[in-house]
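Summary of Year 1 activities. Much of the first year was spent building the evaluation harness for sequence design. The harness presents a backbone, in tokenized form, and records the residue chosen at every position. We chose the following record to illustrate the format because it has been used consistently in internal testing since the harness was completed.
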């Protein structure tokens, strides 16, 4: 396959997938936060 075609196609897939990756990351962080529920180590006085 010609490189002039391959790079734009890969770039388009990357642009499409980026928000999906960020959404999965947010879901994972939220799940970990719910699961772990640590007490804060610093107290705000």
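For this record, the design step produced the sequence shown next.
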């Amino acid at each position: 396959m010609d490189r002039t075609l391959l790079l734009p196609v890969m770039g388009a897939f990357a642009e499409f997938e980026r928000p999906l990756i960020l959404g999965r990351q947010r879901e994972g962080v939220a799940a970990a936060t719910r699961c772990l529920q640590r007490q804060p180590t610093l107290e705000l006085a």
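Residues 21 and 27 are 10 Å apart (CA to CA). Quantitative recovery figures across the full test set are reported in Table 2.
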